[in-house]
């Protein structure tokens, strides 16, 4: 007899978006406050793991047709690319810089190249976590 | 409901545009005028006027708070008694709710009020299996849930 997961699924549909927003918040806070690419990536993965718990593997694959091994590769490429980018300015490998820019609506913002490296970290963490979980989950 | 709220927000935005006043106060005044206009033209919408829906949601929240306090007092009374004279039991209750979120909200409300606890939902979402701490009268317990929570939830989802 299959149990009815209606309560878990309905709550997961709502909580998922809160967790995802929180993970993005953590990701962008990493420069001056606790947070960053690693914890943001883990948060995003945990939101997707909640989906995997509430539904099953096939449903999540249909919602998110992403090959997470490619996500890992893309993240590594971004991280290495930021390191390579410093060569164009005659700086040593993986050196970082930041500056303040003025945007028409948002006002004064600080943009740092470390953020792009953090995007790479974020993608690698999401990719690896979900690859591990999906690989374990498929073995029945 | 959503459509009416969107139109109301749009009216508030237009009001801010016309006055060229980008403040929160001007947004509030525009929204209030939008509510008045929507109330005047409420016959055009297939659904009911959305302020009534908001009132139903607030009423559900207050019913929940009242039940929470009452049942917490009851549980404290049970704990402080030197002798336990409770009759636990599980009963099935047929519900007249159809959407997933309604079943979820009803189950959460029943679970959060101490003394009763949702154990399982039947596969067709039409029966809840509820465990009660003290169950002298099954029909009375069912009626309590019906009159307090289920009616309020039906009021929220009424179109």
TrEMBL record, chain A:
Q: Which Pfam families match?
A: MnhB
In the bilayer, the protein is annotated as: Multi-pass membrane protein
Task: Name where it mostly resides.
Answer: membrane
Listed GO CC annotations: plasma membrane
Give residue ranges for domain Na+/H+ antiporter MnhB subunit-related protein. Answer: 7-130
Give the family from UniProt.
Belongs to the CPA3 antiporters (TC 2.A.63) subunit B family.
Protein name as annotated: Multicomponent Na+:H+ antiporter subunit B
This chain's source organism reads Salibacterium halotolerans
Automatic annotation (TrEMBL), chain B:
Q: How does it sit in the membrane?
A: Multi-pass membrane protein
Alphabetical list of InterPro entries matching this protein: Cation_antiport_E
The name on file for this protein is: Multicomponent Na+:H+ antiporter subunit E
Q: Which residues cross the membrane?
A: 21-41, 47-65
- Gene Ontology CC: plasma membrane
Where found? Answer: Cell membrane
The keyword Transmembrane belongs to this UniProt entry's keyword annotation: yes
Record GO terms (molecular function): antiporter activity; monoatomic cation transmembrane transporter activity
Q: Which UniProt keywords apply?
A: Antiport, Cell membrane, Membrane, Transmembrane, Transmembrane helix, Transport
Tell me the NCBIfam families matching this sequence: PRK12651.1-3
UniProt similarity note: Belongs to the CPA3 antiporters (TC 2.A.63) subunit E family.
Q: What is its main location?
A: membrane
């Amino acid at each position: 007899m299959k149990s009815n997961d209606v309560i878990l699924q309905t709550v997961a549909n709502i909580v998922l978006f809160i967790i995802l927003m929180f993970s993005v918040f953590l990701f962008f806070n990493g420069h001056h406050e606790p947070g960053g690419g690693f914890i943001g990536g883990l948060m995003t993965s945990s939101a997707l793991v909640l989906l995997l718990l509430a539904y099953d593997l096939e449903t999540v694959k249909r919602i998110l047709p992403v090959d997470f091994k490619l996500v890992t590769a893309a993240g590594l490429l971004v991280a290495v690319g930021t390191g390579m980018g410093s060569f164009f300015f005659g700086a040593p490998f993986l050196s970082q810089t930041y500056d303040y820019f003025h945007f028409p609506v948002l006002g004064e913002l600080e943009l740092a190249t470390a953020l792009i490296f953090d995007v790479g970290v974020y993608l690698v963490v999401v990719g690896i976590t979900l690859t591990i979980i999906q690989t374990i989950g498929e073995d029945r | 409901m959503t459509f009416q709220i969107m139109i109301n927000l749009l009216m508030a935005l237009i009001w801010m545009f016309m006055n060229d006043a980008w403040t929160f106060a001007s947004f509030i005044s525009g929204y209030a005028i939008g509510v008045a206009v929507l109330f005047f033209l409420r016959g055009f919408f297939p659904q009911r006027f959305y302020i009534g829906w908001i009132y139903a949601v607030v009423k559900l929240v207050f019913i929940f708070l009242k039940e929470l306090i009452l049942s917490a007092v009851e549980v404290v009374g049970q704990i402080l008694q030197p002798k336990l004279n409770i009759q636990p039991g599980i009963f099935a209750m047929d519900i007249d709710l159809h959407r997933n979120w309604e079943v979820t909200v009803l189950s959460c409300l029943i679970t959060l009020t101490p003394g009763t606890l949702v154990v399982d939902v039947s596969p067709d979402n039409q029966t809840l299996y509820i465990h009660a701490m003290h169950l002298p009268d099954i029909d009375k317990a069912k009626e309590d849930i019906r009159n307090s929570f289920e009616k309020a939830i039906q009021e929220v989802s009424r179109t």
